Amino acid sequence: MQAQYTRRNALLNIIGETLWGLKANLVVPSVVLAVLLYQYGASPELIGAISAIETSMLLLPQMLGSYIFHSRQKRKVQLVLWHYLAMLPFNIVMGVVTFFANQMDAAVYRLIMLACFAGFTAAIGVIAASWFDYFLGTIYDSSIRGTVMGLSTFGASISGTAGTLLAGWMIKTLPSPQSYAWLYLISWALGMLSISVFLFIKDVGGGEHVESERPSVKGLLASLRSSLAVLNFRRYLVGRALAVTGFSIVPFIAIYYTSAGLAKDFVVSCFAAFTVANALGSLVVGRLGDRFGHRWGIIFGAVMQIVALGMAIAMPTAAGVILTYAAAGLTSSSGFVAHYNLVLEMYPGGGDAGENPGGRVAHISIANLIIGIPASLAPLAAGVIAREASLPALFYTCIAISALAVLWYLLRFRDPRR
Fold first, then answer.
1. Can you tell me whether residue 407 is helix, strand or coil?
2. pLDDT above 90 covers what percent of the chain?
3. Is 188 helix (H, G, I), strand (E, B) or coil?
């Protein structure tokens, strides 16, 4: 019976993530929002702020989830309601405001869009650690977790390819800014449908009938100390911080290629190469990681970001943007699937959250907090380098940092399974 529920849960997870991938890639911020705000006069620093906002808001607020979503019995419904009420409404506001962008002061419009984007991303950040703890750490054990994540990310990426192509077609076909406005509204509707699927996932471990208390500050601090006491975990965080800092330039890829003379709708459509590569990479990284460990996957992702940066420098052409986004997609697949599997595997309490109900959430949160601080500042520095020097100079700088990440992983970080 448990195996039957596991298969059912995996299928529902894949369906939900596939719908979310379509939703997310209709309005992917590093491309659609970057191109839209650039159209309304955004500076290089403002383009860098997109990545800074996304990274900081995704990673820094995660500790709050321990207090909001502490009950295993109620957590599934709470997580879904959070999407309905606190996250997805920002998509509606962004769509409606964009309809009137030409009647507004450009600076005011940019401010509203960035504020809504920050609110949307912060809502994801608050929920992220609790989401991964419940829908991945609790529902699946380590023997199949990477495979489920890989299949889910594959589905999200394949549907995301369709979303990216649809976004490019709408930008080319419909007048601006109406095309962008409709993208945000369609994205909201798909998000509501996607997140509703997760209501049907069942906790077969019996935890749905166990009420847990809100974790204490003392308990959370104890969890943080326990996690950071592990030398290999600290080494991993150093390498991951270097890697994400070295790839803080994704929004600049679209600006780089549109500045080289490529059409905006073409560059947006080329992001499909990212989603296809992310899909294929997720399958391979997830499955092989379950069998042989996820250390190799995180190293592969850091290598591929060097390849992506090199492609951008060497090929400011139509073929170049496709290859650059493809390499970036492989980086993304490793950075998601391998990263979260490694973090879960390095939780000192093992596969279960144990007697400390916020322990694993705190463990995930502290990992993302430490990674998020440099990753939030790096895009702002990238904007300054892009303005004062050039985008190729920025890409060379990121190659050097990414190479340091690869060397650190190889020399200092060991597979937690060994």
1. helix
2. 50
3. helix
